[in-house]
């Protein structure tokens, strides 16, 4: 029992001890938890009190607290001087920063640095008052009273240090030491190195100066080039003037020798005036000596004008070919990489080996035969047609260089023989203008209309901007590295290929791969996404296989695209020597070769692509190519622009038959006029027993040469350009589709060609009939493969890059060709149009065509509406009104069923009934209300109909 009692007492004691220990622990924990709360509350109270004190001191400085505030302000200004305005803010910030970062060594350093910076500011304020400089000795009381009264200086604090520093270091030493200490304090406060800031600033200054120097060098180079061009132009003008003077002297000497003067010839014509009034006068005037003199310029053009304007172009191209060949040799001698020797891959650039071969083939035959005939064919051959007796009747100093693309688009240099021609033409034109000619010359005045086209001057090539292409010296190495990476990528997937050729174009580079025996083409095509991933390309296009080659082409976008300017294409021999008047400078292909196509052989073209892909620029390029190639008498244009702003700039050029059509309703009439013109031309072909436009014009020329008075005029080729087909198909789809199909089927032989563009390549715009009759197509970038198949009947256009990147698919090609289209800016277009407008060739537009189109538009509007006409009531108007009144129900569908008419006509009848007050306005899907009774409608008929 005793032991049990002892054990019980022990247990009680132990429980008491545990209870007391638990209580002590809980008490300690509560104390520990309350301590941080107390510290936080204390800190918050101190900050609030400090903020109130600082606000109080700040208001005291501005005299807003009364007498007590003024006394406190005087003490503050006496101690701190001018910086007393800042001391409340500075005091609050320093104390708050110290409380927040208590125990932090870095914070303590920053506080000390801030105090030093504040002291430096006070010393500078004291130095600005010049008190230390003027003080004889240190005066504690004087400094305090001066700062307290004047409220400036540095106070006792700043003034004392300023006096000591000035006494021992002087003014300059004091300022330097203060600046150094201030910089050190700022570095400590901001934790930013001063030297790094100086380095970065100096680096920026250096980079900016280097960029400015490069810009100045470019500007200087451009100014030098402009000055050189101006100097050459002036020298050329001076040389031409000297040649003209010499030619005038030669002509005067020739006239003196032969005894035939211009005055005597005119007198001879005047004597024969009462006897003969026909053009035979000219035969009698043209003596043998005079005929020889007038024939000399034609021979002189072949000898001098051709070598000067035409032969120099191929010669200038030869150094470029040599340079490209040399560059290829330099690339060839590079160190080969591991495995396959990529240095042996041939690279075709903008002027590569293939192009050099083409240029050499072009130069050699034209050096002796083609150039004289090309120059002679257009300007010289036309002279006898207008006047077969040897006397030119018009003055045109630039027809020779302008009509021959080889000379007209370079410098416009005329030879001595051309100057003789121009002088004779000037004399004859002046005689006609002054009215002092004979009757024989007056008889030639009715022939002014056919002569007018020869007065057309082709726009100079200087109106177009030169393309500034940058050369990349490391392009060969980069291309070979990409080729090696491409080959390694295919090898990782078990496809072994050999890269045989690399063709670099303006925007895309094509790598030609030759797979080993047993490798399926579909396997390479299936790796398109993996190739794109490994090459880090935006998109790739695989052409498998390349037409005419045992290779597969992988087209990879270039890192830097090269713009293709229109001037660059028009200056090439491919365009200058192209025989067709409607040549189209398309652009450059992947190999960098110029692509020029004949619209007459297309013969109709469809252009489609998404918005911003380059359709309008392509149309501008086509029009500008025609303006630089064709005379207005040979080619005429009809432009349809429902968007109003794209083609309206061309209004006023001599090639336009009518102003640009912007009304979609009139556009249908323009296409219908094209159908009527085609039918009329075929009827004329049948009357003349010819098959096409070329045969008809040849027969007309023969009749003119024979002097047949019934000879008709030559027919020009007509190009109809429609910029947006989708809008026309929305307004009148039936008429537009019918006219397009008829023209596309039959208009080729009649010399009428269609160019249709649309930004919505869907099946409701490009219908099956339209697509089947448009053999040539250009596809720009589209959003999906469905649109690509709508245009080209195959995929591929959805992978184009935009900005002129196109798939060119003319008639006769087995597969579309990727071409980078030429770029022509709005300024270049406006400059060329302004040049053509300033020629003032007389009445440009054909009023007969405009009247026919208006009549066709009115007729089509009547036919599409109702037999009754535009503002007249429909023939079913009365019957429909009586039927609606009888049924007491009005709906368009009911009229369609009862009268067996279309929706459009039924809707127009319903609108007429609404205007007459028979039915009410439409109310959504509900039937219209019938407002008239039978008696009221009969009264309406008697009064109004």
What does this structure look like?
It is a single chain. The chain is an alpha/beta fold and 945 residues long. It has five domains: 2-192, no CATH class; 279-458, no CATH class; 475-557, Threonyl-tRNA Synthetase, Chain A, domain 2, CATH 3.30.980.40; 602-831 and 845-849, Rossmann fold, CATH 3.40.50; 866-944, Arc Repressor Mutant, subunit A, CATH 1.10.10.10. It is 60% helix and 8% strand. It has 35 helices and 14 strands. The strands form two sheets. The protein has a nine-stranded mixed sheet. A five-stranded mixed sheet has the order 1-2-3-5-4, sandwiched between helices. Helix 1 packs across helix 2 (67-80), helix 24 (664-688) runs parallel beside helix 27 and helix 24 (664-688) crosses helix 31 (847-865). The chain is elongated, with a radius of gyration of 46 Å. The N and C termini lie far apart (139 Å). Residues 255-339, 350-454 and 862-871 have low confidence and may be disordered.
Annotate the secondary structure layout.
Blueprint: H1 2-61, H2 67-80, H3 87-100, H4 105-128, H5 131-134, H6 140-150, H7 155-190, H8 194-258, H9 262-271, H10 280-285, H11 288-332, E1 346-348, H12 353-386, H13 399-403, H14 405-408, H15 416-434, H16 439-443, H17 448-451, H18 475-492, E2 497-504, E3 508-515, H19 521-525, H20 528-535, E4 541-543, E5 552-557, H21 566-570, H22 573-576, E6 583-589, E7 594-598, E8 605-608, H23 615-629, E9 635-640, H24 664-688, H25 693-706, E10 717-722, H26 725-731, H27 733-746, E11 752-758, H28 768-772, E12 776-779, H29 785-792, E13 805-809, E14 817-821, H30 826-837, H31 847-865, H32 877-887, H33 892-899, H34 903-916, H35 934-944
Parallel strand pairs: 1-2, 8-11, 8-12, 9-10, 10-11
Antiparallel strand pairs: 2-3, 3-5, 4-5, 6-7, 6-14, 12-13, 13-14
Helix pairs in contact: 1-2, 1-3, 2-6, 2-7, 4-7, 6-7, 8-15, 11-12, 11-15, 18-20, 24-27, 24-31, 26-27, 33-34
């Amino acid at each position: 029992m005793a032991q049990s009692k002892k054990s019980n007492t022990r247990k009680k004691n132990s429980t008491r001890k545990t209870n007391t220990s638990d209580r002590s622990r809980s008490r300690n924990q509560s104390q520990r938890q309350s301590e941080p709360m107390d510290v936080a509350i204390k800190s918050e109270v101190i900050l609030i009190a400090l903020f109130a004190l600082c606000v109080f001191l700040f208001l005291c400085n501005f005299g807003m607290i009364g007498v007590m505030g003024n006394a406190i302000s005087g003490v503050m200004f006496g101690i701190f001087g001018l910086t007393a305005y800042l001391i409340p803010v500075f005091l609050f910030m320093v104390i708050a920063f110290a409380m927040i970062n208590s125990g932090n060594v870095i914070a303590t350093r920053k506080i000390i640095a801030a105090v030093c910076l504040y002291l430096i500011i006070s010393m500078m304020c004291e130095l600005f008052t010049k008190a230390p400089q003027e003080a004889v000795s240190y005066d504690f009381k004087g400094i305090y009273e001066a700062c307290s009264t004047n409220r400036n200086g540095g106070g006792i604090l700043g003034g004392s240090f300023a006096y000591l520093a000035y006494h021992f270091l002087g003014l300059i030493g004091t300022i330097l030491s203060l600046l150094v200490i201030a910089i050190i304090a700022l570095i400590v406060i901001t934790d930013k190195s001063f030297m790094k800031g100086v380095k970065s600033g100096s680096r920026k200054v250096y980079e900016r100066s280097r960029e400015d120097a490069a810009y100045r060098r470019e500007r200087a180079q451009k100014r030098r080039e402009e000055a050189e061009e101006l100097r050459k132009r002036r020298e050329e003008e001076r040389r031409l003037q000297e040649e003209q003077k010499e030619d005038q002297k030669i002509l005067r000497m020739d006239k003196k020798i032969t005894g035939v003067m211009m005055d005597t010839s005119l007198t001879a014509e005047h004597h024969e005036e009462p006897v003969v009034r026909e053009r035979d006068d000219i035969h009698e005037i043209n003596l043998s000596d005079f005929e020889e003199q007038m024939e000399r310029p034609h021979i002189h053009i072949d000898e001098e004008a051709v070598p000067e304007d035409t032969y120099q172009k191929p010669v200038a191209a030869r150094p470029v070919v040599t340079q490209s060949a040399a560059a290829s040799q330099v690339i060839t001698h590079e160190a080969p990489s591991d495995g396959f020797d990529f240095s042996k891959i041939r690279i075709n650039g903008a002027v590569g080996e293939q192009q050099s071969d083409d240029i050499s083939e072009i130069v050699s035959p034209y050096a002796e035969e083609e150039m004289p005939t090309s120059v002679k064919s257009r300007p010289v051959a036309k002279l006898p047609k207008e006047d077969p007796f040897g006397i030119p009747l018009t003055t045109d100093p630039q027809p020779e260089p302008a009509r021959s693309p080889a000379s007209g688009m370079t410098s416009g240099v005329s030879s001595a023989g051309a100057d003789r021609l121009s002088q004779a033409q000037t004399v004859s034109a002046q005689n006609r203008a002054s009215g002092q000619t004979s009757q024989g010359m007056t008889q030639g005045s009715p022939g002014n209309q056919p002569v007018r086209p020869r007065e057309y001057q082709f726009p100079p090539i200087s109106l177009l901007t030169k393309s500034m292409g940058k050369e990349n010296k490391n392009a060969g190495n980069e291309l070979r590295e990409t080729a090696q990476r491409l080959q390694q990528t295919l090898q990782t997937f078990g496809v072994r290929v050999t890269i045989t050729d690399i063709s670099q174009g303006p925007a895309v580079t094509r790598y030609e791969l030759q797979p080993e025996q047993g490798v399926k083409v579909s396997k390479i095509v299936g790796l398109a996404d993996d190739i794109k991933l490994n090459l880090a390309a935006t998109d790739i296009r695989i052409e498998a296989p390349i037409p005419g080659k045992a290779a597969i082409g992988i087209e990879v976008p270039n890192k830097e695209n090269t713009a293709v300017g229109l001037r660059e294409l028009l200056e090439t021999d491919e365009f200058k020597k192209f025989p067709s008047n409607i040549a189209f400078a398309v652009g450059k292909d992947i190999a960098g070769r110029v692509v020029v196509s004949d619209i007459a052989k297309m013969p109709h073209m469809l252009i489609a692509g998404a918005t911003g892909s380059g359709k309008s620029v392509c149309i501008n390029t086509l029009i500008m190519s025609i303006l630089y190639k064709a005379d207005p008498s040979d080619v005429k244009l009809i432009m349809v622009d429902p968007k109003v702003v794209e083609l309206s700039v061309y209004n006023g050029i001599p090639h336009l038959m009518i102003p640009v059509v912007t009304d979609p309703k009139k556009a249908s009439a323009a296409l219908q006029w094209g159908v009527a013109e085609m039918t009329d031309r075929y009827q004329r072909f049948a009357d003349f027993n010819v098959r096409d436009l070329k045969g008809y014009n040849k027969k007309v020329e023969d009749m003119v040469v024979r002097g047949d008075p019934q000879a008709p005029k030559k027919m020009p080729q007509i190009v109809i350009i429609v910029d947006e087909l989708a809008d026309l198909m929305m307004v009148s789809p039936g008429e537009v589709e019918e006219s397009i199909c008829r023209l596309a089927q039959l208009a080729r032989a009649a010399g009428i060609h269609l160019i249709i563009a649309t930004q919505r390549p869907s099946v409701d715009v490009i219908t099956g009939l339209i697509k089947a009759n448009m053999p040539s197509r250009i596809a720009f970038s589209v959003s999906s493969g469905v649109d690509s198949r709508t245009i080209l009947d195959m995929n591929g256009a959805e992978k184009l890059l935009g900005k002129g990147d196109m798939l060119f698919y003319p008639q006769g090609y087995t597969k579309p060709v990727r071409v980078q289209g030429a770029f022509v800016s709005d300024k270049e277009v406006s400059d060329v149009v302004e040049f053509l407008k300033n020629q003032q060739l007389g009445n440009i537009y054909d009023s007969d065509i405009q009247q026919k189109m208006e009549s066709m538009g009115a007729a089509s509007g009547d036919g599409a509406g109702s037999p009754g006409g535009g503002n007249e009531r429909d023939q079913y108007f009365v019957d429909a009104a009586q039927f609606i009144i009888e049924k007491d129900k009005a709906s368009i569908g009911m009229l369609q069923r009862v009268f067996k008419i279309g929706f459009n006509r039924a809707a127009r009848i319903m609108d007429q009934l609404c205007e007459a007050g028979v039915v009410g306005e439409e109310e959504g899907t509900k039937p219209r209300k019938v407002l008239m009774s039978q008696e009221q409608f009969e009264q309406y008929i008697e009064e109004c109909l």
